[in-house]
Amino acid sequence: MILPIVAYGDPVLRKVAVEIDENYPDLEKLISNMRETMYNASGVGLAAPQIGKAIRLFLIDASPFAEDEDLSEKDRAVLKTFNKVFINAKIIEEEGDEWTFNEGCLSIPDVREDVVRKPKITIEYQDENFKKHTENLDGLAARVFQHEYDHIEGILFTDKLSSLKKRLIKKKLENISKGKINADYRMRFPNLKKGK
Prior knowledge:
Layout: E1 5-6, H1 27-40, E2 45-47, E3 57-61, H2 73-80, E4 83-95, E5 99-105, E6 108-117, E7 120-126, E8 132-138, H3 139-152, H4 163-177, E9 187-188
Parallel strand pairs: 1-9
Antiparallel strand pairs: 2-3, 3-4, 4-7, 5-6, 7-8
């Protein structure tokens, strides 16, 4: 089932999400619905807060990036198979010289900005069977992971922009929170109080 994606301005996007265990109700169905929702919106990642659930769960399918001719053969091979569910994820270490890449977000349609992140990370997470993994990621795989991880920490990519950039997109963000946006997918907008 395709779920509505929560728009910028909803308080759930600012919550630090809570850990879950294998007893979380209907987890398999939730993951399936999230995957369908992500593909419907042409996303490469989707975090549970983006569908209104403040739990430490996100999924990634970075295979669309594997088509990018500018990437190395090695990077494209990694991205082609980078399709995973991440539960209770943690970043253990971030390293390397920061690099800039243009990011967007399904909760913030029509806003894309350059974001600076570390290129290499070491992560721990559980998969959908609650098997624990420790992995090293770099390049675009690390970046997509960091973007989705930020969601379960209550952080949006727009938080990482300079104060000037934030001022330049302020009106766009306000319009998104008020539902004044045309997205190609279902969205849920925050309930705004009258007079605001």
